[in-house]
Design a protein that fits this description.
The chain has 4 helices and 17 strands. The chain has helices at 2-12, 188-193, 214-222, 248-262; strands spanning 18-25, 31-38, 40-43, 51-57, 67-74, 79-84, 88-90, 99-107, 112-116, 120-122, 127-136, 141-150, 161-172, 175-187, 203-210, 230-235, 238-245.
Length: 273
């Protein structure tokens, strides 16, 4: 009994990872403000067009009680791209609590933001509560991608229990134009096996594109989608796509050509490694 109490106490006393990142991008593309705290770090590689930030979680992943926030502001004619060093891994939650992530984008005037994190990988027992709030001005543009992988299939982790909750909201000139809520809790594998949900797929991605050529771009990307995926034009300058694939490799075979197209062959190099 004493050993169990000591074990529980050691879990409760484990330090939790915290991270905060704030970036302000000026109208000419210069970084006007950078604040990074805790496990949130960022690198700025050289780029021919615009600025790019590579996010690094120095804690090595997320687990119960971890909390990260990111806020990006871009104005003028800035062209800003945000990506990650690699997969974000969601490890088993010892006590059932969620890791929480809150991301906010403020894109004003004629600025453009490409939010391109690499895949989030949910381990068996992982728990994540994540929110992305995108605020766009009338003439601003954005490309938003959120890919998700369920289980480490290559390591035989084919059955996953846990919790994944995500909300993505987009407003243009203060008007809410899109909101998506995803909730996968309990036996996630059994849920994804249902024909009406994912028909056994283990890889999912949400894509949002806001630009004056959204209607034309939609027609191009539909040609690379498999029979389980789809895309819709929400308004003339905004489309949403949901990609569903058997595994991470199949997802990337769809996703990379789409990102090449929408970024005009200006994808972050980390996606190629």
């Amino acid at each position: 009994m004493l050993a169990q109490m000591n074990k529980s106490a050691s879990f409760a006393s484990q330090p939790r990872a915290q991270g905060q990142l704030c970036i302000d991008v000026g109208g000419d593309g210069q970084i006007e403000m950078l604040y990074q705290q805790g496990a949130s770090k960022v690198l700025f590689p050289k780029r021919l067009v615009g600025n790019e930030a590579i996010f690094i979680n120095t804690s090595g992943g997320l687990t119960s009680g971890d909390h990260f926030t990111t806020e990006i502001k871009a104005k003028g004619k800035a062209q800003f791209t945000f990506t990650t060093q690699g997969f974000e891994r969601i490890y088993r939650s010892i006590d059932g609590d969620c890791a929480t992530v809150s991301n906010t984008l403020h894109i004003t005037e004629q600025a453009s933001c490409h939010w391109l994190p690499q895949e989030t990988l949910l381990y068996d027992g992982g728990a994540l509560d994540r929110h992305l709030n995108v605020k766009l001005a009338k003439d601003a543009s954005a490309l938003i991608v959120e890919p998700l992988l369920i289980g480490r299939l290559a390591m035989g982790e084919t059955h996953v229990h846990g919790s994944f909750r995500e909300s993505v909201s987009v407003s243009i000139s203060g008007e809410h134009v899109f909101r998506d809520n995803t909730k996968l809790t309990g036996d996630i594998t059994a849920m994804l096996d249902r024909p009406a949900i994912a028909a056994g797929a283990r890889a999912i991605a949400l894509i949002l594109y806001r630009g004056q050529d959204a209607d034309l771009a939609l027609g191009r990307i539909r040609s690379v989608l498999n029979k389980y995926s789809g895309a819709s034009l929400l308004r003339n300058d905004l489309f949403v796509a949901r990609l569903i694939a058997e595994d991470g490799l199949a997802l990337r075979k769809m996703l990379l050509p789409i990102l090449d197209d929408l970024t005009r062959s200006n994808m972050p190099k980390t996606w190629r490694l």
